[in-house]
Amino acid sequence: MSAAGDVNPTTTPAPWRIQIEGGAEFTLAADEDTLLRGALRAGVPWPYECSVGGCGACRFDVLDGLMQTLWEAAPGLSERERKRGKRLACQSRPGGDCRVKVRLDPPAAGAMASRPPVRRMATLLARRPVTPDMDEFCFQLPEGDAGEFIAGQYALLYPPELGSPRAYSMANVPSERGSNPTVWRFVIRQVPGGVGSGLLFGLTPGAQLPIDGPYGHGHLQPGTRDVVCIAGGSGLGPMLSVARGVLAEPGTRRVHFFLGLRTQAELSAVKELDGLDPARLRLHTVLSSPSAEAPWVGPTGFVHEEAERTLAQPLAAHDFYFAGPPRMVEAVQEMLMLRHRVPFEQIHFDRFI
Ligand SMILES: Cc1cc2nc3c(=O)[nH]c(=O)nc-3n(C[C@H](O)[C@H](O)[C@H](O)COP(=O)(O)OP(=O)(O)OC[C@H]3O[C@@H](n4cnc5c(N)ncnc54)[C@H](O)[C@@H]3O)c2cc1C
Ligand code: FES
């Protein structure tokens, strides 16, 4: 076998054998697009968070074999790490049999073994506006595909003609599969200048798209404490899923839902919570930049500050779920972990990198 390197030729026919230093070994199918996704599909508990090159959680070393890097400038690695030969499994594709070094993540094994991600062709059934720049996209999965996931997980959508997928969180709950056909719903924001979201907003009903999932660890956990959901912008999607998941349980835990929007123009998003049991869900809507030209008597500022102001103390009496832009996620983490000493196992989040 050749020395570890960045070259791309195929030296042995796929499927390839991937050996992890210290024991585990798995086979990577010929049509697998990355090392990470192949490992997860094989039930290997490879550490990861975002699946799209942003977080660095999936970093590893190549000890032997050929490995192609898909996105050289992925922000999940620093220049120093790149120089030291580190790689991201979600941005690497083997070119033959390989030997690699990574510290596996055994706690993730259980969830993955019962629901390994599946890549399938989905059909866009419907699209409707949620706010001026966010739409709900409803995708139908193929006949017989149960589309199992845990509330709060995400999927990878492959926008047409774009080589790399983008991550979007399901906004519904898996029990909606009782309806026929199985659907996955996503609340997607059209990012100004964003390549992937721009292509998705060009889709019309009937369009077909590869969708791979479920992924993610920031999902709903069983428990008895009341749940706090903090959603920043398009973080609304996964928080709706978590809230729906809690309310679908027979238990009595309640949901404190904090929805952070920018201006009154986005208040139409509030309608997404219509129909959720008001006896068990309390909604707090916060505007960060309300316009002086339209009425607003509710709270203003950062959404997590409103949560800190209004929740009963100690905050550790609740389980926390949050999703949104990286700056919001960091601010919530700091509030919970540093200022309020909420135990790590009560904190579940997705950073929209
Ligand atoms: C776990 C998770 C869940 C998310 N859930 C949602 C959601 O429910 N709703 C929502 O609106 N947004 C969500 N996002 C954000 C979403 O994935 C996109 O980042 C966002 O839509 C902007 O994508 P874009 O292509 O329009 O923008 P761009 O600025 O063009 O690209 C944004 C991201 O795409 C990836 N990327 C860029 N270039 C490359 C490349 N050459 N190769 C590979 N990858 C590249 C990077 O991750 C980059 O940060 C989520 C993100 C994550 C990580
Ligand atoms: S999982 Fe690979 S960089 Fe986030």
TrEMBL record:
PANTHER family recorded: NADH OXIDOREDUCTASE HCR (PTHR47354), PROTEIN RFBI (PTHR47354:SF5)
Domain 2Fe-2S ferredoxin-type: 16-106
InterPro entries listed in its UniProt record: 2Fe-2S_ferredoxin-like_sf, 2Fe-2S_ferredoxin-type, 2Fe2S_fd_BS, Beta-grasp_dom_sf, Cbr1-like_FAD-bd_dom, FAD-bd_FR_type, FNR_nucleotide-bd, MRET
Gene Ontology MF terms in the entry: 2 iron, 2 sulfur cluster binding; oxidoreductase activity
Matching CDD domains: fer2
Protein name in the entry: Oxidoreductase
Domain FAD-binding FR-type: 117-221
Organism placement in taxonomy: Bacteria, Pseudomonadati, Pseudomonadota, Betaproteobacteria, Neisseriales
Cofactor(s) named in the record: FAD
Source organism (scientific name): Vitreoscilla filiformis
Keywords: 2Fe-2S, Iron, Iron-sulfur, Metal-binding
